[in-house]
Design goal:
Bound molecules: calcium ion
Order of helices and strands: EHEHEHEHEHEEEEHEHHEE
Radius of gyration: 18 Å
Length: about 230
Amino acid sequence: MAATILVVEDEEPILNLVVAYLKADGFVVHTARDGESALMLAQTLRPDLVVLDLLLPGMDGLEICRRLQHDGGPYVLMLTARAEEVDKVVGLSVGADDYLTKPFSPRELIARVKAILRRRRHMSAPFPSESALLTFRDLQIDVARREVQRRGVPVTLTAREFDLLYTLAATPGRVFTREQLLERVWGHDFDGVDRVVDVHISLLRRKLEDDPTEPTLIQTVRGVGYKFTG
Ligand code: CA
């Protein structure tokens, strides 16, 4: 089944261009020109992915992105303008899965969209039943439902945070380099912005660790990367 994509952009020429390319590639496409209608449409249409412009009239893209983050919320590809000088990592820290800086080539946009969706399909592939539930001391990861509990209390993770946690926790003790995590969780080279991994690790720690400065679940392996110790 074709993926459903919601494009949120107030600049008509860009909106039309993005929509035309996505449709030509076989996606089911809906559009919104501001945040309020974007959130309303996201609720009714349950799109797989939202292409979200950062600068919109009224509610900005960061706020929309924040509000889209809930269990089973859509993946988000954020569009930013160079002039806005927004730290790319800011967008990623509110749960965006990737970003593109304007002006971008429509082909690049299609490639990014596909990379995100490919990763999603891979992550949600059926797992053997015995590994559907990963349990470590007080942490429980329900792989099939993509739900996480700490001491029986549900923890809300963004899609990307879940993918990152699952990747690490599926093989406890194994050390992953930032490059390996980028490749597995983001699915393509991130313009060499290794910091995106660090940012997401720190977001995960804030949600999962008792003391994020003294992590016991996800440990830093100095000079190498990260490992899950459960
Ligand atoms: Ca705009």
